[in-house]
User: What shape does this take?
Amino acid sequence: MSWLDNPQFKVAVWWAGGGILSLVGVVVPFLAMDGMNGGFAVSCLSGFFMILFGVGAMVYVYRAAVLNRILSGEDLVAHWTYGPEEWATYAKAEYERQKSSKTILFCVISGFALFFGLMFLVFAPNGGFAVFLTMMGLIVVIGFTAFLSVTLTGRNLAAGVGEAYIARAGVYLNRTLHTWTMMGATLDGVTLLRGESLLMVFAYSFPSKSGRQREDVRVPVPAGREEEAQRLVAYFNEGRPLETRGDEK
Assistant: This one.
């Protein structure tokens, strides 16, 4: 895959574009504005965004390099494809799982927001009504975001390509790259899970502002590849060499 066709590199270009616009925002105020009348503030704010966009661009350039190595076969340990029925079964189960988890998360957050909104409404009547309305607005925003996320996930799964690339550096599944080789990320374990179909679950984590955040990548195992999946689990968990590399179904 060329860099121009790499979806991660395309995202990096957008981030770089934002950085260039921010750079303009740093320079222009010095040329067209009085620094003491807002020019310095605009430049400082633009400089912050320039750094933010620059870091984002570098992250996605690195992710693009990882994806190029995976798709070129470098560090690749398995390449699986799925029949329409296999992928449909996986897509349906994955959609229901994400729908359930996000519904639970929405209910928990909404419950806390409603509780604190009512507390302010009862015990701080002077400004409590404004806080209550804010909490209600937060519930609406969170609900819409959750609904949109689940809907887009369902559409993405339904239109999936039915293909998985498994490499030492990460997994590329359904046009989504998961990598544990950057920003302090670690692969914490790989397991086999029997659900609607046999799944290989890659658990990895990375630093976040609230501690380490965990992500699970659930890769369906194609029919007839159970033994290969077991070898892969042993390889990732214990570092033992693979006897063979997975080829296309």
In short: The chain has a mean pLDDT of 83. The chain has three domains: 3-71, 77-82+162-238, 86-158. Residues 163 and 175 are 9 Å apart (CA to CA).
